[in-house]
Amino acid sequence: MRIGPHDLLELGATLLPHVQALISDPRSKPGDLLNHIQLLALREPIVAKVWHRIEEWPPGSPLVLWSAYWCASGFPQVRLTHKLAASLMCTSISPEALDDLRLPWSSFLIQVPTGLVEVSNPLGGTIEIAALAVQATDAGFRVVAVNRTEPPLLLPLRASSFEGLAEPELDADDLDLDFIEFHPLDDRDRRAVALLGRLFVGVSAELGGREQGERPQSPPRIPASWKRAAPKASTIMLNRDVAVDCRPAISLYLGGHRGTQPTVQVLVRGHWKRQPYGPEQSLRKLIHIEPYWRGPEGAPVSLRSTGP
Q: DSSP readout, 81-141?
């Protein structure tokens, strides 16, 4: 069974009218929502279809539940160009800049451009990551990486702050233990997790510099049009120009490449700068300083142990 962004749109629009009061209650827990859906499935045929999806694929139940929260936020999704996504994956952020970050919505989707990040497939080969499903929680937030192919495979991450997903390497405590039991992480997976964490932090920083009016807003209720036709995501596109294409560096990093040539090019990681602005330079906004190549043009590429 496959669950892609379009399926999540339909699942969320189906669930929200029946669970809106519950998910609006700050005291409710994911287990309460799951039990509520199970009871509703006994008398609501349309909810029974959702429950059938959960029974078909129990590990995916957090993603199905997330779809209702996504709907409540207005189905916001972020798309990026390949070069910008790769650049953000090769960008670190200082603790001071992390203090300025906020989630742009309580639940939203980040579309990962094709061909950028692949994790190991338990059955052999690799699986490409398609999207990051983000949700605010009482303990911080949760990010679920969703793959493009069948069988469905989730890489859920939990963190109490942006710092938890901004580090180049993540501790096992940041990872969902159910996933580790189902699919033990190897070196490639941990590298992919680091890149996806930076992408999430980078997207949040990019959106933090936009005026509120530039973001899709959460609807106060289910639009009537969704009852007549399929719901649509509210999309914001991040497509600013990027000078350096970091995609080759990401591919080499995920493959475990280590350069040993005496004369090499090294990718210098980008970073986020707190830029003063406003009256008497009293305000601060985050500015992305892009990664760049250092070394002789045309020389072999070296990736240091810290990665891109």
A: -HHHHHHHHTEE--HHHHTT---SSSEEEEEPPTTS-EEE-TTSSEEEEEEEEEEEETTEE
Range of the domain at 257: 247-302
Contacts of 45 (CB under 8 A, 6+ apart): none
Count of beta carbons in the 10 Å neighbourhood of residue 56: 11
Please write the tens of the pLDDT for every residue from 10-36.
Answer: 888 888 888 888 887 777 777 788 888
Q: Within this chain, do residues 59 and 80 fall inside the same structural domain, yes or no? A: no
Interatomic CA distance for residues 243 and 84, integer angstroms? 9
- pTM comes to 0.79
Is there a domain that residue 307 lies in? no
SS (H, E, C) 233-258: CEEEEECCCCCCCCHHHHHHHHCCCC
Quick one: 65 and 159 in the same domain? no
Does the pLDDT at position 218 exceed 50?
A: no
**Secondary structure tally for the chain: helices H, strands E:** 11, 13
User: 105 and 221 share a domain?
Assistant: yes
